[in-house]
Amino acid sequence: MEKRLDKLKKSKAKDSQTKAKEEAERSALEKIQQVLMDGKPARSVTLSDPEKDAIRHLCLLTMKPVIYVANVAESEVADPEKNPFVQEVAKLASDLQSGVVTVSAQVEAELTELPSEDRVEYLKSLGVSESGLGNLIRATYSLLGLRTYFTSGEKVAYEDFVAAGSLAAAREKGLLRSEGKEYVVQEGDVMLFRFNV
Questions:
Q1: Which of 48, 60, 117, 172 is the most exposed place for a label (fewest CB within 10 A)?
Q2: Using an 8 Å Cβ cutoff, are 2 and 9 in contact?
Q3: Whole-prediction pTM value?
Q4: CB of 102 within 8 A of CB of 128?
Q5: Contact 160, 194 (CB under 8 A)
Q6: Domains of the chain, first to last
Q7: What Pfam family does this protein match (any one) (predicted)?
């Protein structure tokens, strides 16, 4: 970072676009350098979108998103915030702009031994609707901006597909459509990806 900052300070960029990018990068690096000197990760700095874009090429390890996982007892699964250690982890995560998920390793181990039809009842008896592992997966997907796609059939909204009764009926009603590569996939879309081989 120090070498990059020195280079940016000596730069004599002429065009305004390059100058603006270099200024955003310099500003971001100065902010990050200060927190790194204080022993904090780079992600604890609040940066503007241009600053984030300007330093992305550096791939700073401490800019990577983090989720802290707190292990709690089975009796604390329904209300983990009462645990003072979970409170400490949540405060630390908040200060470092990170996420927190609570999991009970004991409950997760017991869930693996139960038949799938009994797992829901067991979780209900504990006062929760989803396992800690499920919460962790959901938080990870959210943090990374990921989505899961199950593809089958042609492009049609799921509700339209179900209401029509079949793909042929949806086609007859004009509910099928083609979308380009810029289309943002919506929840419940049923899609067929076409490509040339």
A1: 117
A2: no
A3: 0.64
A4: no
A5: no
A6: 2-63 (no CATH), 67-144 (3.40.50.300), 147-197 (3.10.20.30)
A7: YchF-GTPase_C
Distance CA 131, CA 87 (A): 20
DSSP 51-112: HHHHHGGG--GGGS--EEEEE--GGGSS-GGGSHHHHHHHHHHHHTT-EEEEE-HHHHHHHH
Q: Which of 147, 162, 149, 146 is nearest to 191 (CA)?
A: 149
87 is written with which tokens? 């409170």
pLDDT tens-place values along the chain, 197 residues long: 888 888 888 888 788 888 889 899 999 999 999 999 999 899 889 999 999 999 999 999 999 989 999 999 999 998 999 999 999 999 999 888 888 999 999 999 999 999 988 998 999 999 898 899 999 999 998 888 887 776 555 557 677 777 888 778 877 888 777 888 888 887 777 777 777 76
Q: Give the tokens for residue 113.
A: 């031994």
Q: What are phi and psi of 83, to 5 degrees?
A: -75, 125
Query: If you write DSSP's letter for every residue of 115-162 in order, what string do you get?
Result: -HHHHHHHHHHHT-SS-HHHHHHHHHHHHHT-------SSSEEHHHHH
What are the φ/ψ torsions at residue 132 (nearest 5 degrees)?
-65, -35
CA nearest neighbour of 170 among 180, 159, 182:
159
* Cβ-Cβ contacts under 8 Å for 126 (sequence gap 6 or more): 74, 77, 78, 107
